[in-house]
Amino acid sequence: MTGLLAAATSAADKRATFKAGLNSGKIQRFPGAFNPLVAKLIQEIGFEGVYVSGAVLSADLGLPDIGLTTLTEVSGRGQQIARVTDLPVLIDADTGFGEPMSAARTVTIMEDAGIAGLHLEDQVNPKRCGHLDGKAVVPTADMVRRLRAAVSARRDPNFVICARTDAAGIEGIDAAIERAEAYADAGADLIFTEALYTEADFERFRAAVPIPLLANMTEFGKSALIPARTLESIGYNAVIYPVTTLRLAMFAAEIGLREIAATGTQSGLLDRMQHRSRLYELLQYERYNEFDSDIFNFTLGGNQ
Known about the structure:
Blueprint: H1 11-22, E1 28-31, H2 36-45, E2 50-52, H3 54-60, H4 71-84, E3 89-92, H5 100-112, E4 117-121, H6 140-153, E5 160-165, H7 168-171, H8 173-185, E6 190-193, H9 199-208, E7 213-216, H10 228-234, E8 238-241, H11 244-263, H12 276-283, H13 285-296
Parallel strand pairs: 1-8, 2-3, 3-4, 4-5, 5-6, 6-7, 7-8
Helix pairs in contact: 2-4, 5-6
């Protein structure tokens, strides 16, 4: 039964794994999961962690990524995903869903949801997608208060609090580096610098900031798509691929729906579908059947 209805690994162990991974010298790869089933696939393929993107969660609800989602919605989806995987889950907590006290509460809720870490950003609330123009950031002191509140609320010291700065595209890289240093002093375990452009930008940030760094390799944005091996050689500790699986799925879904609309049948699409048997394998149907049989196929002894 272990690992069947829920992950076998405890939340505490996942957090310890994440914290150790950030200091291992090997880059931690966190593809985004838009649902729990994708998280199971990420684990099976051999990645180090799972990411839950705020942009993806918003899109899944049919909303733009402009701070419309709530703590309840985000933590609920995070809990669903964390429950099914033995991998640590890093979640996008936007600006903390309010003032510093709200950021503190967000940490406690995410800990209770089994999440291994979250990131908070220094955008003005309501935020917008990090690769869009027209963003605004709060003063450094405001973000420091946000982070200190979050750190003070943490009960598990291995719960990773990541500080994201969107300042590079607004105030320049030097200002973003200054912010990162202040955020590290405020207790952040990991720094996420959004929307750097080139490999040289990533190298410059690594040279200046003394704590673990996370790179965002999102498609169609401002950053060059740098391979994980290169990021690792630069000295980055983690990389996220936040929207990749949703983009792949939506592209395939649109092609399929258009073909059904045009031809009236999906028969020409079968070679592009996950087979029923593969889905059952991922869901471990056979193990559920064994469990069911062990519980219900029994006989009572004569003296009972």
